[in-house]
Design a protein that fits this description.
alpha+beta, Aminopeptidase, six-stranded mixed sheet, two-stranded antiparallel sheet, 3 helices, 8 strands, globular, binds coenzyme A
């Protein structure tokens, strides 16, 4: 997917319904904190990115591409229905999966898994040993999606003070050498 196709991302319905979230809880086990999944009292629906949000991200994406990142798009009948953005090989020998979105009407059909597989293929091509990514802890569906694909917890960061969102979670998968 080249820079000329980035505008098409505005036509992907990136919204999602959130019914569950992960939260950090004090526990008597291990170091005293555990992650647990809980149902939201009132499910929320995040809004889809429109042209404004996509335009706002465009400069960063162009810079990412110029720095060696790769966009992979998923197409159905020539329509863009999903994408993943994968970094270049970072200095610690890892690759970061920056963003992954599948159009809401086309989820749970294997497109997200195919995009992750593509990202991992790219990481292997770059001779990276690990793929990692971050998402908000509240995004339980994404966390479960990555867990089911072999990603494991490597960190939890309380970003509430610097960003207008809850704690962030980092997950990683070591690639077979
Ligand atoms: C996460 C996302 C990319 C997955 O794409 P997808 O095309 O639906 O993924 P697949 O069809 O390959 O895999 C679906 C699997 O992921 C998990 N999963 C996906 N959505 C889920 C949900 N809402 N609840 C629970 N598990 C979910 C399940 O394991 C599911 O497998 P199953 O259908 O056999 O139960 C997509 O849901 C999405 O775009 N979400 C909004 C954006 C987002 O959260 N991105 C990640 C932020 S970094």
């Amino acid at each position: 997917m080249g820079a000329n196709e980035l505008g098409d991302i505005a036509r992907i319905d990136t919204s999602q319904e959130q019914t569950t979230e992960y939260v950090l809880k004090r526990s008597k086990r291990a170091l005293g904190l555990t992650l647990s999944r809980r149902a939201l009292e009132s499910p929320t629906i995040s809004t889809s990115w429109g042209a404004r949000e996509v335009t706002g991200r465009m400069e960063l994406w162009r810079r990412n591409l110029a720095d060696g990142a790769t966009f992979y798009g998923a197409h159905l009948a020539e329509k863009l229905v999903g994408f993943v953005l994968v970094s270049w090989r970072l200095s610690d020998g890892t690759v970061e999966l920056y963003s992954i979105f599948v159009d809401r009407a086309h989820r749970r059909q294997g497109i997200g898994s195919a995009l992750v597989a593509k990202a991992e293929e790219r990481a292997a091509e770059l001779r990276a040993h690990t793929v990692h990514m971050s998402t908000t802890m509240a995004n339980a569906a994404a966390v479960d999606f990555y867990r089911a694909r072999g990603y494991r917890l490597i960190g939890v960061y309380d970003t509430t003070k610097v960003k207008d969102k809850g704690a962030e979670i980092s997950l990683a998968k070591e690639l077979a050498s």
